[in-house]
């Protein structure tokens, strides 16, 4: 986001760098299921709370330490 | 007929000054790209170097190392293209990509590939023996041709990958791209229907597949390069990939006949006098 405000490529590299930490922190910990706060995010909770015919899911993750916080909504392409 | 082609091929391979300006512009533009990239990763690089196993020193050593790397690159830009600086620049680029792997993308792969190939585009220092010099020139001209093939292969494989993907054939890929918030330019709001997504997807596929083959036909070369520049500038602006867009445009210099332009200018100046 900051890159598109300044058009400074160093912001782009910095955001990629920060994102790599986020990805490791979130996805790897999620995959291991070892961290307490992410253990609840296991597949069972998705099965329990999301209807089978749902075409999209909105998940809001609140991090303990917030940096460049923003809310984004993804959409799903309807090919039919 | 075959004899004629063989003769043309031999002439191409043995020619000394063929494509020299193109090679110089191509190699130096890659060095400048690497130097500019170093400038833009200046906030990340010291931290990554400190974390790498090679450097368990202090900040001063890191900044001396970065200073030395920058100096080598600057010197390489001003020196004539030669084996030593080409090899050193490739090692620098490869090492930086390894160290800053988390921020690397396709542009780093392309840069490293062509910096490696550029080692063989040199003809300095020259062999004194005529037989060895001929082999040196053959290698140089062969690798120049090989670099051009590599560019067309990038497009061919990318186009092939897209045409075999259901998401691209249906236009879904375009819809996904414009809805990826962390990827797509938030300053632009585009709403495309299914037909428009389908059209853009197929134009992209046809361009990539067409580029791989038509770039070898002289008549189509310059129009294709112009379309390619627009294509990559659009990608650089719309998606967060300015580095990839720029490196692909730099690769186009392999197809630009600078020698002919320079020759024409010289002839025009001579005729004018």
How would you explain this protein's 3D organization?
The complex is a heterodimer of chains A (80) and B (273). With 80 residues, chain A is mainly alpha-helical. Chain A has helices spanning 2-6, 9-32, 36-39, 43-49. Chain A has 4 helices and no strands. Chain A is elongated, with a radius of gyration of 16 Å. Chain B contains 13 helices and no strands. In chain B, α6 (106-118) runs parallel beside α12 (242-251) and α7 runs antiparallel to α10. The mean pLDDT of chain B is 85.
In short, what is this structure?
The complex is a heterodimer of chains A (80) and B (273). With 80 residues, chain A is an all-alpha fold.
Please outline the helices and strands.
The complex is a heterodimer of chains A (80) and B (273).
Chain A lengths: L1 H5 L2 H24 L3 H4 L3 H7 L31
Chain B lengths: L1 H13 L5 H21 L4 H7 L7 H20 L4 H17 L6 H13 L11 H34 L2 H5 L1 H7 L15 H21 L3 H21 L3 H10 L6 H15 L1
């Amino acid at each position: 986001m900051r890159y598109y405000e300044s058009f400074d490529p160093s912001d782009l590299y910095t955001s990629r760098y920060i994102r790599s930490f986020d990805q490791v922190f979130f996805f790897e910990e999620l995959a291991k299921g070892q961290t307490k706060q992410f253990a609840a995010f296991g597949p069972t909770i998705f099965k329990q709370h999301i209807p089978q015919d749902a075409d999209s899911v909105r998940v809001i993750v609140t991090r303990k330490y917030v940096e460049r916080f923003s809310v984004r909504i993804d959409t799903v392409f309807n090919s039919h | 007929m075959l004899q004629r082609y063989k003769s043309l091929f031999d002439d191409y391979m043995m020619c000394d000054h063929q494509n020299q300006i193109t090679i110089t512009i191509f190699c130096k533009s890659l060095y400048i790209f690497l130097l500019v990239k170093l400038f833009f990763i200046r906030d990340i690089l010291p931290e990554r170097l400190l974390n790498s196993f090679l450097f368990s020193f202090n900040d001063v050593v890191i900044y001396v190392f970065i200073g030395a790397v920058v100096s080598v690159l600057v010197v390489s830009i001003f020196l004539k293209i030669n084996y030593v600086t080409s090899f050193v620049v490739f090692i620098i680029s490869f090492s930086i990509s390894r160290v800053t792997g988390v921020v690397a993308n396709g542009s780093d792969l392309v840069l490293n590939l062509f910096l490696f190939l550029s080692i063989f585009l040199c003809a300095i220092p020259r062999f004194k023996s005529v037989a060895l010099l001929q082999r040196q020139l053959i290698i140089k001209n062969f690798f120049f041709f090989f670099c051009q093939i590599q560019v067309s292969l990038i497009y061919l494989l990318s186009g092939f990958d897209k045409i075999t993907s259901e998401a691209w054939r249906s236009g879904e890929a375009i819809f996904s791209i414009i809805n990826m918030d962390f990827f797509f330019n938030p300053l632009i709001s585009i709403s495309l229907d299914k037909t428009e997504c389908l059209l853009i997807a197929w134009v992209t596929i046809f361009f990539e597949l067409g580029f791989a083959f038509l770039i070898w036909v002289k008549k189509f070369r310059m129009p294709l390069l112009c379309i390619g520049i627009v294509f990559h500038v659009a990608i650089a602006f719309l998606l967060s990939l300015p580095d990839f867009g720029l490196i692909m445009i730099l690769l186009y210099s392999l197809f630009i006949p600078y020698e002919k332009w320079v020759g024409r200018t010289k002839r025009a100046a001579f005729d004018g006098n």
